[in-house]
Fold each of these.
Amino acid sequence: MSTIQLRTPIPGPKSKALSERRAKAVPRGLSHGTPIYVAKAEDAWLEDVDGNRYLDFAGGIGCLNVGHRHEAVVEAVKDQLDRFLHTCVQVTPYESYVRLAERMNEVTPGKFAKKTIFVNSGAEAVENAVKIARAYTKRPGIIAFEDAFHGRTMMTLALTSKTHPYKAGFAPFPSEVYRVPFAYCYRCSYNLKYPSCDLYCARHLEDTFKRVVANEEVAAVIAEPVLGEGGFIAPPPGYFKVLTELCQRHGILFIADEVQSGFGRTGALFASERYGIEPDLIVTAKSMGGGLPLAAVTGRAEIMDAPGPGGLGGTFAGNPLSCAAALAVLDLFERENLLNRANEIGERFQRRAREWQRRWSIIGDIRGLGGMQAIELVQSQESKTPAGDETKKITQYCYEHGLITITAGTYSNVIRLLVPLVISNEQMDEALSVLESAIAAVCDQKGAVAQLV
């Protein structure tokens, strides 16, 4: 039986009415990818206020790896609701905060003593990771990467790469942030090819210390193991080993921003494991809370202890409801086969996407790790010119036909996969058929020439 059920044209009349109210009440800076207003959601589907049911490939921008309203998460939150909602951990602490910190110290990469602090969002966690790194090293500089996204607060905007819509008009940003190219093999900044390049982009960090900022002035290098908003770019094997070894040589901390790649998305609990690295600090959020706001900084104990008492915190940081949800999420990963499922989802997507690439020149690149997969859309495979307009048309076709998708990439020409890992094979195939039809419709519309198989 089909999960997708459309009872009205999309958007339906109730969603249209809500869009009119929104336009009067909410500033335009808060954008929305679809004109659909949600009424309820379960597992890998959601239903709008008009009774239309969709499959969800966006997952709340990667917050729902265990699915919408997983029973274990809901029960944990209900149990906490019966006890207390908020006390502020900085005034009257609670056991669930400590227990969750202990769990995070155990499950994150690295065989060394660790400590964890909880905050509300990924951006807030990144801000605190920078504070901790500077406090420990007594150095000001932070090196970030092209195509990176680390948040929308002022410090994280300084670290974020994409100008529009994120940075334009909000300057000046905090200083002492330096940017270098990432391992974007499809669009290599140095016009080289892997593996003959010998990971030049990673080794080029040494040149940065000679030409841009002195290594003794750099507190940390921050990187997403797989770029999120930047286009789901997964560096080749060995890249992060080279990068982290260079950091260690110069006493520079390595911060892994696993806000989007963490909690099973890549087929490991953390993408850092896929690259065999042990970050000094690891930033997590999104799917950690199973749908509730929660983020963390976990790192080497001596580094985490660098700020003095009162130097870290926040009124709602580590909210007890979110801590209860996160403990349930970790339990789910221990007892259910979600990591293998992420890999199965990725393989299922890759098989279909490779077929599309042979049929249509608009599919330029297919990439990812585990269930963190994406296709990059181009005018032609020869030119690699970004196909931003076509990407918009494909995503619109998808939601009009019952599939919620989300884009990414500096050129807004990447469709990324953030489907809840609890999706069934039947639902996955149904969703991929909608996406295939969307690509076909756009290619036919622009008169694209099908390639020979």
Note: DSSP finds 15 helices and 15 strands in the chain.
Amino acid sequence: MIGYYLRMALRSFRRAPGLTALMVSTIALGIAACIVTLTVYHGMSSNPIWWKNGELYAVTVNPLSPSRTRQAGLPAYGSSQLAYGDATYLFGSAIPKRKTLLAFLFGWISGAPDQTRPLPVMTRATTAGFFRMFDVPFRYGGPWSAAADRGPEPVMVLSDRENHQLFGGADSVGRTLLWSGHRFRIVGVLAPWHPLPRFYDLSAGAGGAFARPAAAFIPFQWGPTLQDWPAGHMSCESQNAPTTYQGLLGSGCTWIGLWVELPTRAARRHFQAFLQAYAGAQRAAGNFHAVNTHLWTVSQWLAVHHIVTHRSWLLVNLAFALLAVCLINTLGILLAKFLRGAPIAGIRRALGASRRQILTQHLVEAGTLSLAAAALGLLLSAAGLAGVRLLYRGSHAAYGKFAHFDPIGVAWALALAFVATIVAGLYPAWRIGRRPPATYLKSQ
């Protein structure tokens, strides 16, 4: 019977091609708006390393009292970064499976073949644990060893983009480069890697959540060794910022990120206790005004930094409101269309068709309409996402990376549109099934 109902639906569409096109295009427009906004929203709010969400933790320590925290304009947990003394002490804990320190430095790279001028590069000063903690892929070579952190050894990991720019994409492991006048040996080259949002460093001073990863990576201790001032965000409570590098290391200025990998609940409890004990000891010594420590999972870290703004969620709501308006209009058009074909339904009822069969026939017609609208909606969505990529090219290219079909968003939007269209067709179909056939037999 379904095949018969489909044939009747196609005949009904051919009898009113204008109304059919209007309904299909109306629903397709609503579907396209939902898919585009949901795709971008889901990409911006997603956890790019979800499989380790319960193992990776960002560490924060707020030494300020609640009143001083409010005066400084900071959230309740304080700064998202740590001072040098706090970061290096906590990094020394043996509890985490892996751990990493993060700072941003600015440097110049030279010495590559055929390079005519130094290349300015944003450089990530970090530790060996960074690469394995965050599952960073390598094209050539690999990360440096923990011993290279202690040295520190003059080793470097290049990004895929810079390796193409300096060496034409060839294997450059073992080659040497000058970074700000100091010779470094390349030990690894990353494969293309651009987690969005850039969860491990969300600070605006480092480019924000959607900036590219660093062009080069060097051991963290090269910053203090070369007395290279951080290039990323630095926050100092005192108005008198340090003027010497040693003053910076001994100050309470925050500029270092700390992440730890705690794969078990026991490890998390032990490290939390270690963190609390350290903050308590610092408060007893008069260095801290409060004991306020946190371990944040990746998803929590993204949430507290408000990576997805209220405006983004508002756009999603508006898109679904547009879909609702489209479906309401479709309901009215379907009702008018079904009532127009009511005499045919009345004759079928007189020939023995049940109300259930009439209802099913019209629901099949509504379902066929929704499938056609879904197909057109996907085409319009592809065009809309291409427009988003075109809009956010250049300096905002990172946002354009979200403008690709997201299977989850597409599945939700299409399922919602299909169900909503069936629901929209349910009332007109029920109305037709309830009308007495005698009315139409008399008129015929």
Note: The mean pLDDT is 83.
Amino acid sequence: MSRVTLSVRAESFRLAEVFTIARGSRTEASVLTVEAESEGVVGRGECVPYARYDETLDSVTAQITSLPVILDRSSLQSLLPPGAARNAVDCALWDLEARQRECRVWELAGLPPPQPEVTAFTLSLDSPERMQDAAARHAHRPLLKIKLGTPDDMPRLEAVRAGAPDSRIIVDANEGWTAEVYRELAPHLLRLGVTMVEQPLPAGEDELLAEMDRPLPVCADESCHDRQSLQALAGRYDMVNIKLDKTGGLTEALALKAAALKNGFQVMVGCMVGTSLAMAPAVLVAQGVAITDLDGPLLLAEDRASPLRYDAQGVHPPARALWG
């Protein structure tokens, strides 16, 4: 372990449009940027504190500033629980070590050079008419993710399919349905060509999924945080959504991916609404997974310097100037 000086600051990045899910709306991405400095070399990481997990900018900042100055990635795993604070510090330490050794993070992790991955693009919750318009504007994208989670979602589903007849569609209910609503909607999801549904029932009430037919893959998001989550998901879910702000960083995210695949789960790699700095480590985890959902920067009106590149091939690995 070495002496590391951590600094943390809150930053806001404007969204291109209002972003709405079942829990509320936002007009900006509020993030924490962490810098880890050792012997004149600086690594960076980003996290998005999430109220769903009782996190705030202040509470996560307090966790980060409580850490000792003698620190490395291994000791960090026991010093902080899974969550946003550990994520930002863990990713900053990966970046720091790569810069110290003058190599890339994927080389440190023993991974092959990353390639572009096709990513979903998220349509936020809105009226059916506005969601159809949004779907039509983005109908060129191969994979659309629809934010739902109300008892009145059928018109929205129909509208999005009408607006983007050729795109693959996945659905995120954000814990907003009951078992009865999901049973009613499932046949229509299939009819409209939906290929996956994410977190249809609230975490903590998802044991009912083990008793229900799953005619299309069901993905655990709020029900899956780290490797400790996996045992309870067996028989309820077919896929897990790995987000670094839930796992507490790249270190645990890579371990969770390996464990999930070993236990027969498909893998999705997702994100909170953050900048390219937050997405960059997740691109490494997303290599070869079933679904990549790293569209945070596509939702922003402003981003980091040296942002991630998005094109027809998908989201590209980060440039060294950004991270890793």
Note: The two ends are 20 Å apart (CA to CA).
Amino acid sequence: MAGSLVFRAGANAYRLIRERGFDPGSISTLAGASGGAKWLVLSQLDRVLARDILPRMSAPVHTLGTSIGAWRFACLAQPDPLTAIERFEAAYIEQQYSEKPDRAEITGKSREILDELIGEDMLDFMVTHPVLRMHIMTVRGRHLLATESTPLLALGLGLAAGMNALSRRSLGAFFERALFYDQRDRPPFFDVDEFPLQRVPLSRDNLRAAVLSTGSIPLVLEGVTGIPGARPGTYRDGGVIDYHLDLPLATGDRLALYLHFYDFLKPGWFDKHLSWRHASPSNTSNVLLVSPSAEFVETLPNGKIPDRHDFVRYPHDERVRAWRQTVDRCRALADEFAEVLASDSLAARLDRL
């Protein structure tokens, strides 16, 4: 049956759902990719996640996000996630800049949105959530990638991109993964070893800085320094290495639910245009990927998913109008998702990832 949503599953997830149906209680991980403004096609689906799925989950459920994925889960981990989503969505859509904003201005606006999203009174609840275990992946810049000098930073990124095209492992010479993790339960991605990895216990003292840093796109926002509990250095967008989270997300008969902008996964930020670079089948085996169909995307304003280039592509009022229309249009995705869950028809809609 065709629809506005595409449901794809890795090998083990496909088998389990076809045999048993879909049970939210089988979810052990929620995954959220980098993507900036692309998240606006998911905000209505996130409401279904908060309203219909989260209450049926059993602890512990790990959330792993890079960049906007971490910001989305910062909404989900609050006492009233639906209100948090609405608050974040409004602040994100309405952000406004001067004609030629510099890095400091964009960083300042991100901090304002963070203040709107995560108040001091939310921190204790978020790090002790009864069901969710928040984990945030970011990167610590090495060598040229630790500087804020535009020429040197651009040179370092160019070198990293070139080396990555030859070997993804080469990114370890430029970046160190930094996983801010909930200490209560060890996640399945805790011991990944493809790149240098720093593990930092997540706490009320560093949660806001971790969320800010994983959204700090190099050359667009300033890196974050002085994060409590972390090694000295400059922390940046976790999507540089883990763009679409090519990581072991779930094991055994447990599933990773992945609401995504696309029906495919790319490992790192520099892999976006590398046709030969794909996520590992072993990492996606337990993944259930839910995304809007290409046909649905064509019905959105301007026939596309929002992205950060819209800030320069359209005047402020036109961008805001298009983004609001996108969110309204995506109510259809939420309605379809809720209906699939209520009718237990996901197995019949499932394709292989």
Note: Residues 5-352 form one domain.
